[in-house]
TrEMBL record:
Residue span of region Disordered: 1-29
PANTHER family, alphabetized: FORMATE TRANSPORTER-RELATED, INNER MEMBRANE PROTEIN YFDC
Gene3D superfamilies named in the record: Glycerol uptake facilitator protein
Protein name as annotated: Formate/nitrite transporter family protein
Keywords linked to the UniProt accession: Membrane, Transmembrane, Transmembrane helix
GO cellular component: plasma membrane
Listed GO MF terms: formate transmembrane transporter activity
TM ranges: 49-70, 82-100, 130-156, 176-196, 208-237, 249-268
Membrane found in the keyword field: yes
Pfam families according to UniProt: Form_Nir_trans
Subcellular locations according to the entry: Membrane
Membrane topology of the entry: Multi-pass membrane protein
Length: 279
């Protein structure tokens, strides 16, 4: 084979790779990828999961840092409606750090850890182990961030205690029914996000997906059990928000996020994939 023929062959091979990578993934392929990723999470040691989850809880806490700075800087200059849009634009930052950085986030694992159970690859006991460890680790990391930010923010003049309070109060000032429905919606969106991230093949596309979905959660004021926990716990540390209010929020937002994430996978995407395979 001549050099020119070899060059043309290499170009053709690269073109095939590029064409295949540019094609959108099928629903079945995305589902199988999520099964494989979920199975790898179930195989991880408890210690490894916990450490990654603590890191995830701390990383997602950077959302509160940015939200607090924005609220402190613009709350007096802007109307509540305009401020809401700017806060929503800042809400995704912690999610981008966690999801793109591949740390563990409970609401993502609500979906991801459940997929292998539907597939029959792992059992319920393993599912509860992963959920429990990731949830606990995220809360632990979140508590650390809340404590540090409530010390750092006021002392440096970048976040006021009033901003911590207002960000927290908007989450706890609801009935259990409202929090439940709101968190189901947020869990559904996080399940969708996990699916969209798996379908995206480039980092910039994944960042865009994370931004769109989580900005929508922030704009809607929907209840996220981990970021919301960080916000409410910070408010608890610096204001008259009580442990009872925190517990009320945490209980119903966690239940709702679980329902939303599991419903999205089990009743929608999994059913869709099965029907397509049968077809």
């Amino acid at each position: 084979m001549t050099d020119s023929e070899q060059h043309e062959k290499n170009q053709d091979e690269r073109q095939v790779v590029q064409d295949s990578s540019s094609k959108p993934k099928s629903a079945s392929k995305i589902f199988l990828e999520q099964v494989d990723e979920g199975k790898s999470e179930h195989k991880r040691s408890s210690r490894n999961l916990l450490m990654s989850s603590v890191a995830g809880g701390m990383e997602v806490g950077f959302s509160l840092l940015l939200l607090g700075i924005i609220h402190t800087s613009f709350s007096e200059a802007l109307s509540d409606n305009h401020l809401k849009w700017i806060l929503a634009a800042g809400y995704p930052i912690g999610f981008i750090f966690v999801i793109i950085g591949r740390s563990e986030l409970f609401t993502e694992h609500t979906n991801l850890a459940f997929v292998p159970v539907l597939n029959g690859s792992v059992g319920i006991k393993s599912l509860f182990r992963v959920w429990g460890i990731v949830f606990l680790g995220n809360l632990m990391g979140g508590y650390v961030v809340s404590f540090l930010l409530t010390l750092l923010g006021p002392s440096m003049g970048i976040i006021t205690e009033e901003s911590f309070y207002k960000l927290a109060f908007k989450l706890v000032d609801h009935s259990y029914g409202t929090i439940l429905i709101s968190s189901i919606t947020a869990g559904w969106l996080m399940g969708l996000l996990s699916w969209l991230v798996s379908s995206s093949q480039e980092t910039i596309s994944r960042i865009l997906m994370v931004f769109i979905i989580t900005a929508l959660i922030g704009l809607g004021g929907l209840h996220h059990s981990i970021v919301g926990s960080i916000e409410v716990f910070a408010g608890l540390l610096v204001s008259d928000i009580t442990f009872a209010q925190y517990g009320h929020f945490q209980l119903w937002s966690t239940i709702g996020n679980l329902i939303g994430g599991v419903f999205f996978v089990s009743l929608l995407k999994f059913s869709t994939v099965k029907n397509r395979d049968k077809g």
